[in-house]
Specification:
By secondary structure, the chain is of the alpha/beta class. The chain contains 15 helices and 14 strands. The radius of gyration is 21 Å and the shape is globular. The protein binds 3-[(4S)-2,5-dioxoimidazolidin-4-yl]propanoic acid (DI6) and fe (iii) ion.
């Protein structure tokens, strides 16, 4: 038997489509039927059919959709604290990468780790995000750069979603870095595409990602990966214009990508292209902060063109060892000047869209009852606090 009940005594930030700002409903009631939201509105308007259900009063707290971290690399071996120290001594992220540090050093640690060890190290990261009211986590491969390790990472990602009450969405990211000593074209055409076929055949791939950058792959190489993704019926997304402008954002738009991520060096023309293709700009202020980047993404151009903006932690051992989605929201406001309403849309409605999910990210009838109840009254408080976790209760699929 499914459990039906009514949540009352809440201010609801519904983040409903088309609503300006938060889509706030004061003195709200939410009817939960099984795993879904059946009704939301002012308590005074609760239809009589629901009057007999059990009620849970939350004392005037704020309720929002559960948060969504739409960009993480939480499955990885080792850490890069040494590199952090190098950067503090003046080395740039690119210099560290070219000196054999960077992504390829995490590749060595991830190849060496067993599936069980990778799972054990990733679970506390999942728990940290869940503790902040997160209901969906995107997890990328990309620290294997060989067929076996890419598959291992994606199997661990899938296992995270079985071990914890959270939805995991995977992205295949073998086009993340050029393996030491390899030729980029040969790597793409042999290793990366073969790994994609194999991982897809095992049902491990929800989307296909790449790193389009001077220190990684160019647009022609990424296009070959995207062509194969499309042939397999898989959506694409891209790390684009993070460190320089080489055309990744326009490429992502051309392929109708779900998202273009980082986009610090994107131009107003890129914003127009993203708007036309309906691609989400995913902002990752944790990486911007960690690598001392000074070029902020063109937020005003995204606004002017109506490009939906999402926010992720980019939780990874190199450029963004950031384990807090709430801090990512704060950083997006302080570093990129998003409004707190844009920041909350960025970790709910627009983050769902960046993952191609249509059943979460808002409080609306028919959507999953993935919700977060907070010890705050004003939704701006979620972005305003620094290192503060005001979560009261997380509800996942109707269950708390
Ligand atoms: N850009 C990033 O910020 C992460 N991946 C990428 O393509 C960094 C990954 C790392 O440094 O390990
Ligand atoms: Fe990333």
């Amino acid at each position: 038997m499914t459990h039906h009940h009514v949540i009352t005594g809440v201010t609801a930030a519904t983040m409903a489509q088309g609503s300006a700002g938060y889509g706030l409903v004061e003195n709200a009631a939410l009817v939960i039927e099984g795993q879904s939201i059946a009704w939301v509105g002012p308590l005074a308007d609760l239809p009589p059919a629901y009057h007999g259900l059990d009620r849970q009063d939350h004392g005037g707290r704020l309720i929002t959709p559960a948060l969504i971290d739409c960009h993480t690399h939480i499955v990885h071996g080792g850490n890069r604290a040494r590199e952090f120290e190098m950067r503090l001594n003046g080395a740039s992220y690119e210099e560290v990468a070219r000196a054999g540090g960077g992504i390829v050093s995490t590749v060595a640690a991830t190849r060496a780790a067993s599936e069980a060890a990778l799972l054990a190290s990733a679970l506390p990261r999942v728990d940290a995000l869940i503790a902040q009211g997160t209901g969906v986590i995107e997890v990328k491969s990309g620290y294997g750069l060989d067929l076996g390790t890419e598959m291992k990472m994606l199997r661990v990602a899938r296992a995270l979603g079985r071990k914890r009450p959270v939805r995991v969405v995977t992205s295949f990211l073998a086009a993340h870095a050029i393996p030491a000593g390899a030729d980029a074209d040969i790597y793409i055409d042999t290793v990366c595409l073969a790994a994609l076929e194999a991982a897809h055949a095992e049902g491990l791939v929800d989307a296909v990602d790449g790193f389009c950058e001077g220190i990684a792959f160019d647009t022609a190489q990424i296009a070959r990966v995207f062509d194969r993704a499309q042939a397999l019926g898989l959506p694409v997304k891209l790390h684009a214009e993070q460190l320089s402008h080489i055309g990744g954002t326009a490429l992502a738009a051309r392929y109708g990508a779900l998202s273009a991520d980082h986009v610090e060096y994107a131009t107003p023309a890129d914003a127009a292209a993203l708007a036309a293709s309906g691609t989400v700009a995913v902002l990752l202020p944790g990486a911007y902060y960690t690598i001392h980047e000074t070029q902020a993404p063109p937020v005003q151009a995204f606004r002017d063109h109506g490009v939906p903006m999402a926010i992720g932690t980019d939780w990874n051992p190199g450029s963004s060892p950031l384990g807090s989605i709430l801090l990512a929201m704060n950083m997006a406001c302080t570093l990129f000047r998003l409004t707190p309403a844009e920041a909350l849309a960025g970790t709910t409605r627009n983050a769902a869209r960046a993952l191609g999910l249509t059943d979460c990210g808002m409080i609306a009838p028919g959507l999953r009852a993935d919700l977060a109840i907070w010890n705050v009254r004003d939704p701006a408080e979620l972005s305003y606090g620094i290192g503060i976790n005001p979560l009261h209760t997380r509800i996942f699929g109707g269950a708390s």
